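step 3/5: co-fold with GDP-alpha-D-glucose
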Amino acid sequence: MEFRERTRTALQRAAIRSRQRCDAPPRTTREDLMAWVRAHLPGRRLVIASNREPYSHHLDGEAVRVVRSAGGLTVALDAVMQAMSGVWVAHGSGDADRDVVDARSHVPCPPGRSTYSLRRIWLSQQEHDRYYAGFANSALWPLCHVVYVRPRFRRMEFESYRDVNQRFADAVLDEVGDEPAVVFLQDYHLALAARFIKQKRPDVQVAMFWHIPWPNPEIFRILPWRTEVLEGMLANDLIGFHIRRHAINFLDTVAESLEARVDFERLAVDRGNQRTWVHSFPISIDADEIAAIAEQPETVRAEARLRAELGLEDCAIGLGVDRLDYTKGIPERLDAVDRLLETHPEWRGRFAFVQIGVPSRIELREYRNVQIQVRRRADRITGRYPRAGGPTVPLIERNLDFRELVPYYRAANLCAVTSLHDGMNLVAKEYLAASTDLDGALVLSPFTGAARELERAWIASPYDRDSLAETYHRALSEPWEARRRRMFALRETVMRRNVFDWVLEVLDALVGLGLKTQSRVREPGSEESAADAAEHTLGPSDGR
Ligand code: GDG
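step 4/5: write tokens
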């Protein structure tokens, strides 16, 4: 490219960047969220529970190293906890986790600042195998994702899941004491916890967010313990899903499985004494932070370095970033790369597809199979369509630090998110946030929650190899002006609503809906015992 042309493009891109920053309406900042929490939840304990801990401790020779769990969700919840000085209950999974806790398994967080407490739950290997690898990831995960991996239902795994949920609930109750409290449960690992919490403390407000899809009732019906799982979930005051379709699927499932009044207008379930609101809150990311990282000089340098290392200087770059999970459609994505190079020889030697595949749940056979399939395809494509600079499909099979990941987002001319089914998919949003120069293209599966918001992405089904390959070609060939307009619109969506908005919306709904819901449970310690209250909660519908 000529010098003048390059300068013109650089100036144009700088202008776009500043315009996009100024035009975007104000969104919630970390400080706004902290202020909101202090103003709206005063005097209440806030307890968050999730399987994964926000910080883990690891042995590093003689020393202990703290690792912050990656991802926007942890960042946002970390900010809420800091504002509230609350307690985060999670499974202690680091090999030095036990060495740093006090007698009650507490460790102050964040490291060095100590504004809240992390309470660790200890699981034996057998509990972990049965609760986590077993019922959560071999039954609920495939059941909810509908990707034709047969769920495995084993009674002892479900029983262990129930026991571990009880342990989480006990830890939450212990932290809450006799105080008024708000509890926010994360994900499909904790479907039964709300019920155990409410049995003892019916007055505590409990919300749960289900980060993965919810299937239709026909599919959910095969779960042998469906009634117990649904009853457990309906002990929550609020259940959040990413998209309305999953909320409706959940309501349909309840309507078909239990005696309950399901209100499709208000999106709520009444059962005994309990009302559960079932709403959608699409999660997002800390887009400003990611955009800022993408613009830092060290990120720009890292991008140049990775181009040189992988021999990508004169090459269009495709990118995939995922945990190696069968729901993410990685073999399907690579098969379409193969087809692209077969049907469009002009891309041979001029296109490389970098796949970052973080090993995940490796104790399960299905996950090891994904790894094998992906490696085979990467080798096959590189063998068939070799490239002078390096492999045609470089495969990076390790967990990168987030700052190492952003240069890949920056470098990619195309990012392929081809999930067979996905609650949301944050990679799609992170790629857009990091593409500050608007020089990119997002190819997105219609089976992701993200596709509901990102309608101007290149939507293509991972089940249709030919059309996915053709979509890669069209996305890579789109003229710059059209490409820029498309990316501008997509990026605007991501910049408008961030992960702090998401947390605030969930907590605000919990507080607000609590005001709307007629109180039918008594305060603890009143005449009605906790056991009575629990019976109301679980009893048959009173026909309202
Ligand atoms: C569930 C739902 C929903 C990936 N590689 C590396 C790395 N990552 C980070 C990405 C991104 C996250 O992992 C993956 O995002 P997904 O949205 O695909 O997440 P799932 O793990 O499937 O999670 C999903 C999500 O919950 C949130 O509600 O969107 O639908 O399945 O943030 O950046 N991060 C780092 N190094 C890597 O190598 N640091």
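step 5/5: annotate
The longest helix spans residues 155-176.
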